[in-house]
């Protein structure tokens, strides 16, 4: 009799074939039932057989199909017939429970088509396994309301989606189907333990500010400082393009090639870069003036307090040369309309750097699953690492498992934890 290559103690292996690079294994149960599944009595008599094909974990890099010679019985007491139960086989699908568990974990990180190719299970079936698993995680996990909440958006499947992050821990805690004020406000209003929130970091997007004001009264909104500084750099870069448009192509390319000299902080430039910057200031006076204005604007964010930052901004605004004032027009307008949330940074000192990193993670997940629905992508982002719990200690395979080379999933029950969200530093493997 063939060796029990499956390592399923409840079954006896009858035959093993290597068919076109896949294993086809014929098995039967070791202990048939001796009681009726309906009335619980006996005796039972055989009443025929049928062959069922079941998928299992790949072995030696080959897909596995199992033919179970399933016996049918009739109860002498109640007269009803039934097929024998199949241990370690999923109740809903023709696959082993260990394959289903493996697919649940893998489907969070790998394309369904790839898993279908590895296991022989249909991509639609894998999608259904994923949906059930995601629903179980949704029902069992509770994300913790953070002290500092970040709101950003990412363009996903032809629409901007609002993304919420736990900024101190750098975790994604939710992604909504859109970024409309009503949708965002409803989510914020339903947050548990809202009293924990100290502040909310946002972009200069009015619906976010209004949603925070309505759903979290008294909680300050803080405009991310990097978005404000980015506007200063964008103004300087726009002037560079304007100046370059009237130059000889060679000089224009030089301005473009060394644009980083304009955008870096002056103290970070080396001697050669400072000389190049000084020469540009002489050749193109507006560019030199704009660079110095950009540097003074950056100095505002080195202020020790809100009042000092406000004073520095007023002085910067008043000192702008009329020749370059229009260059910084968008920045001046933004500061005028968003002065309160911008200056709130100096009271709370929070940024959305980790939120931006989370958006890169989301885009990576999207690239892995081209064609997937928003619900699938959202579940992947929220529930990767089993709901983004803190990583649990690695369970080393038992010595017997190492000898056999199975490396089967652990059946140990692990305690539940409250999740903070999805760690934006996880690796897609």
TrEMBL record:
What is an example of a Pfam family matching this protein? Answer: HTH_Tnp_ISL3
Domain (Transposase IS204/IS1001/IS1096/IS1165 helix-turn-helix) ranges: 84-134
In this chain the Transposase IS204/IS1001/IS1096/IS1165 zinc-finger domain maps to 33-78
Q: Which domain of life is it from?
A: Bacteria
Query: Transposase IS204/IS1001/IS1096/IS1165 DDE domain location, by residue?
Result: 149-381
The record's section on PANTHER family has: TRANSPOSASE FOR INSERTION SEQUENCE ELEMENT IS1557 (PTHR33498:SF1)
Q: Which NCBIfam families match?
A: transpos_ISL3 (NF033550)
Q: What's the name of the protein?
A: Transposase, IS204/IS1001/IS1096/IS1165 family protein
Instruction: Report the source organism.
Output: Leptospirillum ferrodiazotrophum
């Amino acid at each position: 009799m063939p060796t029990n290559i499956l390592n399923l103690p409840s079954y006896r292996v009858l035959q093993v074939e290597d068919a076109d690079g896949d294993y086809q294994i014929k098995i039967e149960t070791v202990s048939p039932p001796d009681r009726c599944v309906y009335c619980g009595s006996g005796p039972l008599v055989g009443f025929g057989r049928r062959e069922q094909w079941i998928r299992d974990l790949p072995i030696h890099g080959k897909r596995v199909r199992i033919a179970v010679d399933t016996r049918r019985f009739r109860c002498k007491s109640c007269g009803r017939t039934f097929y024998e139960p199949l241990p370690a086989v999923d109740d809903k699908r023709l696959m082993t429970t260990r394959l289903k568990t493996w697919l649940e974990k893998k489907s969070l990180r790998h394309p369904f088509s790839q898993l279908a190719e590895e296991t022989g299970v249909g991509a639609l079936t894998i999608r259904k396994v994923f949906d059930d698993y995601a629903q179980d995680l949704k029902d069992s996990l509770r994300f913790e309301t953070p002290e500092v909440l970040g709101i950003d958006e990412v363009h996903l499947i032809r629409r901007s989606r609002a993304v919420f992050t736990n900024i101190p821990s750098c975790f994604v805690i939710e992604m909504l189907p859109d970024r409309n004020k009503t949708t965002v406000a409803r989510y914020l209003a339903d947050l548990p333990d809202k009293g924990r929130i100290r502040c909310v970091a946002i972009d200069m997007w009015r619906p976010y500010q209004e949603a925070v004001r309505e759903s979290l009264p008294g909680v300050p909104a803080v405009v991310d400082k990097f978005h404000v500084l980015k506007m200063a750099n964008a103004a300087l870069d726009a002037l560079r393009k304007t100046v370059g448009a009237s130059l000889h192509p060679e000089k224009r390319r030089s301005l473009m090639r060394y644009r980083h000299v304009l955008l870096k902080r002056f103290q970070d430039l080396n001697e050669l870069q400072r000389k190049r910057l000084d020469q540009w200031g002489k050749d193109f006076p507006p560019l030199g003036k704009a660079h110095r204005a950009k540097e003074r604007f950056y100095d505002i964010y080195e202020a020790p307090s809100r009042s000092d930052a406000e004073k520095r901004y007023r002085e910067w605004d008043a000192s702008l040369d009329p020749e370059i004032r229009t260059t910084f027009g968008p920045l001046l307008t933004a500061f005028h309309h968003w002065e309160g949330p911008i200056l709130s940074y100096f009271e709370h000192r929070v940024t959305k750097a980790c939120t931006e990193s989370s958006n890169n993670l989301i885009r990576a997940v999207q690239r892995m699953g081209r064609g997937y629905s928003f619900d699938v992508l959202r579940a992947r982002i929220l529930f990767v690492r089993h709901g983004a719990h803190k990583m649990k200690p690695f369970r080393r395979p038992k010595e017997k498992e190492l000898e056999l080379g199975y490396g089967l999933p652990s059946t140990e029950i692990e305690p539940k934890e409250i999740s903070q969200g999805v760690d934006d530093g996880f690796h897609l493997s």
